[in-house]
What does this fold into?
Amino acid sequence: MKWPYSYVIYGLRLVSNQPIPRLDPIESTPNTPQDISVNFDADDKQSTQDVADETPWYVSDICDENGNPALKIWKRNNSGGYRIHYSHGLTFYLNASLTDISIRCAAPMERPMEQNDVADFLLGPVLGVVLRLRGVICLHASAVAFKGKAIAFVGAPGAGKSTTAALFARNGHSILSDDIAALIERGRSFCVLPAFPYLNLWPETVYMLTGEDKPVSESPAVDKLRVPLETSGSRLEREALPLAAIYILANRSGDSRAPFIEALPPQAALMSLVANTYGNTILDTTMRAQEFRVLGQIAESLPIRNLFVRDGTAQLGRLYDLVCEDLARNLR
Amino acid sequence: MNSNFTNDAILVATKQQVSCELGEEAAILNMKNSVYYGLDPVGARIWRLLQQPTSISAIRDVIVQEYDVTPQQAESDLRALLEKLLREGLVELTGDSR
It folds into this structure.
């Protein structure tokens, strides 16, 4: 069987020729419909396609230690597919219909990449790109389950999305996603699709939440730790849940009132959402217009709040209570 | 941009934008340059009228009827907004109703 491993993530059924670390496999038969096949051994035909026949699609403004852009994406003119290349040696090839992902690893011998590292890129940014190119609106957010609804915590890198999700996990809530909250329209609401059963946490955050000694980061390519939800007594939510409220995280360490919540009027809420969608730099004009319409509907129909937080453990208990009190007042 | 348009000039929202209503307010995305704009309730009302080719005098009359404002003030504010929208490529002149 060419694709012996099956998984569901972001509502997509993935099949793979190798196990994908950290995902829980599902039962499937050769006749089970699949959305995306993942081939961990890209063949030479894909990798040697003439690079002159590619058009630059996106260049990251973040550079590696050698000054090279950490990420580049090309559109492949002949096939209509895409090539996603990370400067440390990982390349992902997407076909035009976004149903095949082939992976090639050319990491230097002195810093070989492990399957876990490849999975981190596949399940995070690469699937993020695939979702966006498939027209799925994605917030740069973590999302947790609260009384059968999804609550999203939106914010820039370092704003505290994963920490807040970890806080809810420790209080018994199941988790929908970390970093990418993929939205699907169902009836008159938007649902958050379940992602993977772990959180991406800084060692300092793990220490802050558990009191355990700071563990060492497990990968040279990524600095955060992958912390299984089960270690905090939580689990991945299995069903897509209707999005019911959004909190925009912002650090206000200098403000003694923090943590506190401030309601956002719809126009300001829309602008905050626009600034915090995932992967919006790769969107073309049509996709951007579609995103704008969807975000407008969300901004008009859901409670959206600024959630001002500050550094340190002292605020965490208060932060959880504050959000729960706000949700109790505002959830319909 | 033609800032000397008459009250009979006909304007309409261009195809190079997408907008959404947010309660009484509205927001616009200019698809040419990916710039976002916000409109207050009066601006949003004018924007709704501009979804169809409309003369300046017709818009002014609606605003005077619906809001507590003199025709002179309404026309002055309206012209200022329309000039901005024209400058940003969000509306265009399509003719003259005379």
Q: What stands out?
A: Helices of chain B lie at 41-49, 56-66, 71-87. The mean pLDDT of chain B is 91. The interface with chain A takes residues 18, 20-23, 25, 27, 29, 31, 34, 36, 38 of chain B (CB under 8 Å).
